[in-house]
Amino acid sequence: MFLDNLSFNNFILQLGQADSFPGFANDSKNFFQILLSNIQTLFVHPDMGSEIISLSNLTGICCNIFGYILFPMSIFYLFYVYFIPKALNNNSIKNKIIPVLFVLIIPFVIIKPLSYFIFTIGFGSYYYSLSLTYIITVFFACAGFFFRIMENWLLTEKIAKQNLQSELALLKNQINPHFLFNTLNNIDSLIKSNVDKASETLVKLSNILRYMIYDTNIDKVKLSDEIKHIESYIDLQKIQFANMKLVSFSVKGKTDNIMIAPMLFIPFVENAFKHCTDKSIEQAIRFTFTIENNIVNFKSVNVSDKTKTISKDNSSGIGLNITKRRLEIIYPGKHTLNIKEENNTFTVTLSVNLNEH
Burial, 276: exposed, middle or buried (Cβ in 10 Å; 0-12, 13-18, 19+)? Predict the structure, then answer.
């Protein structure tokens, strides 16, 4: 049973008038009325002089539903589910040409015979628009293409974020076992000679582990906290060596209110200790932070004599590779990283622009 136009329009008006479209007269139809009138065109029978349930009218109504609902949905589905995924997965010319040929040929193959044999010959008066069908085909093909591309982009972003989280988790798990064992042994030795120093060292180790495991489970941390973490790590490294002036560490500029991705710098700090070939030289390892105009500049320099061999654990280089990957994802186009080894020094310079624009 169908509602007549008057009763349905009264119902729509009770819901509230929609804003008129720009350029229309004040008495123009509201949005719901326009939508209703377009839906009703699906059920307009071609042979107005016959009963609505006549063969010609039922055929016309079915063809309207096919042409304006089922056909567009099929086009959208084919492009969304089949053509575009296939073109993305296999970058061949064939997979790009077929969708174009489909859009050009299918409307003509389907609509022209439908219009001619069923309506022109069968009923003599009903004409089915080929140009409108092309417009519908192109529109829904583009819609299928757009939605598939957007879905792929969102999926890629989601996977990249998941990979980033996994890489950060892997970075956290790369606690150098030699560093941990040496620190614990040093604490054990200090307990016998300097209880207060042993307690202070144990607290620093605890703070490092807590920061790595718990405090970095967010996208951004305070730069001041990151620097404190690095300072604690350096202090624990220094107690392993007799040279108390092995490391030079300086911070220039204000770190207040600056947020940055966690654990970006610690792999380079760890690497400096690993690659330093002579830990008896004063300031053989040097770290500098310079903060200016919301740009963080980090520099690491250590003595590195190529003629001397140093022992590295199996995780050597993993932290650096993960950090490079994280920088590419988190700060694309907003960071510069340079690593060079020359004149018996190993130098890392990293600049991160934290400005929004």
Answer: buried
